[in-house]
Specification:
Elements: H1 16-20, E1 30-35, E2 38-41, H2 44-52, E3 58-63, E4 66-71, H3 88-105, E5 110-112, E6 118-120, H4 139-143, H5 147-150, H6 154-166, E7 170-173, E8 182-186, E9 191-210, E10 213-224, E11 229-233, E12 239-242, H7 245-252
Antiparallel strand pairs: 1-2, 1-3, 3-4, 5-6, 7-9, 8-9, 9-10, 10-11, 11-12
């Protein structure tokens, strides 16, 4: 019979599996930065300084026999990071979340920082306890799930935003603009519709070659209360109603290799 050691820390709020390092919390992700000078351990702080210095190095994640290598900062042309509209802290946080999510999806539960300290990876699919459920605040407002009541297509819109943000084919994806409050003309319905949440995309694919150089595909995605999700081609002015992820991919080439 296997006994649980008494010194294991089962303090309130701590996952017992983390304390005992069982399951995935016993599996390490070796996260390293690959550069021309060799490899080094990569952690949150290092990501921040790498972005600040304009790093073009790769990340290598190794979990057991599995290994993935990809650019630390996804970009399609010099000086145009897909996170160009975000602050340095926001960029580093988003990139580190992407790295830790990949490590989690590969089956790992922890990594070691530059000082060889063991750091548990947070479950990226778990609702964070830090969500503000203060007295008087609607939990749906805190979690932004109440948007589904106001906008029936909110879940799909948010999914499209996540997929666009993770796509290597987009040079940048702006944050969702919740304050747009604008009227948008739908050509195919021949009427005005009120929109609020929206975001814009610039693709690495070329739309045309103009006198001033190449023009990339650019799109804006609008969420409406009554007309669904509208995708506008910012180069041509054409609009389409997006009904699912497959259609979004077909129009924008989100997953094209």
């Amino acid at each position: 019979m296997k006994l649980i050691r008494e010194h294991i820390n089962f303090e309130r709020g701590l996952d017992p599996k983390k304390s005992m390092a069982t399951g995935r919390y016993g599996i390490e992700a070796e996260i390293k930065l690959l550069s021309r000078w060799g490899s080094s351990y990569l952690d949150k702080d290092t990501v921040y300084y790498e972005i600040a210095s304009g790093s073009t190095d790769n990340v290598c994640i190794k979990v057991g026999n599995k290994r993935k290598i990809f650019p630390l900062i996804p970009e399609s042309k010099p000086g145009r990071s897909k996170y160009i509209f975000q602050t340095l802290s926001e960029q580093s946080s988003k990139i580190w979340k992407r790295i830790s999510k990949i490590a989690w999806d590969m089956g790992a539960g922890f990594y070691k920082d530059a000082y060889y300290n063991k750091i548990n990876i947070e479950d990226p699919y778990k609702i964070q306890e830090s969500i503000n459920f203060q007295r008087g605040l609607d939990p749906k407002d805190a979690m932004k799930t109440g948007m589904t009541n106001e906008y029936p297509q909110w879940n799909l819109f948010h999914l499209l935003y996540q997929e666009a943000s993770n796509s290597e084919n987009f040079i940048y994806v702006t944050p969702i603009n919740y304050e747009a409050n604008q009227s948008f003309r739908q050509i195919f319905h021949h009427k005005e519709t009120w929109v609020e949440p929206s975001f814009s995309i610039e693709s690495k694919f070329i739309h045309s070659m103009g006198t001033s150089g190449r023009i990339n595909d650019k799109y804006s995605l609008y969420l409406t209360k009554n007309e669904g999700i509208i995708l506008s081609d910012d180069n041509t002015g054409d609009v389409k109603e997006i009904i699912d992820l497959k259609m979004f991919d077909k129009v924008t080439k989100c997953y094209d290799q």
